[in-house]
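Folding follows sequence. Below is one example:
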Amino acid sequence: MLAGIGLECLGIEWATHGHGGTLRVYIEVAGREVDVDDCATASRELSTWLDAEDPIAGQYTLEISSPGIDRPLFTAAHFARLLGAEVRVTLKLPQQGRRRLRGRVLAVDDEQITVDVDTVPFTFAADAFESARLVPDWVALGYAPQPRQGAARDNSKPASRGKRATGKPGTPPVSQ
C-alpha cells in the first residue's frame, strides 16, 4: 500500500505500554531523505487501512518515522546495504556466551550475517537477531566533538607566572 504512494516500509515495531501499545512504522523514500510530508502521507494511508481492517485489538498509537541516523535493521538485506559499517545487535538467544554484539558488518547472505566483534568474526543466522541498529559515524557526519579554541595546551613545561615579589614591603619584584 505504501509503495503505491512512492514510500517503502523499512520495518515495523510494536511496543506495549499501559492499556495499549505503539505501532511504529519506519518508512524510506528512494533517492532522498524522508520528510514530514512523507510521514503525514503514510500516516493517513495506514490509518485509513487500520481503521477499515482493524487488525489490532484495543487502543494503540500509530507512529510513522524515518529510520533516522541510527537506523534500525530488520532483514539480512538491510545488513547487506551496510557492509563495512558498524552495527549494534541483540540476539534472541545467547551464542558463544554473547547476546549483545557491536562490530562492523563483514559478510551477509540470505541465511547468515557475519560481524567483526573485537577483531573476531562472529556469525549468526539472519533470523536469530532480536534487534539491530546502525552505529552512526559521528566523525564522518561532522558531529564529533571538536576541541575548544585555546583548550589545547603544551603541558610539558609550567606556564610562566611573570615576576614574583621578594616578600619585603616596598621592594620591586625580582625576575626569576
Observations:
- The mean pLDDT is 87.
- Residues 36-53 form the longest helix (18 residues).
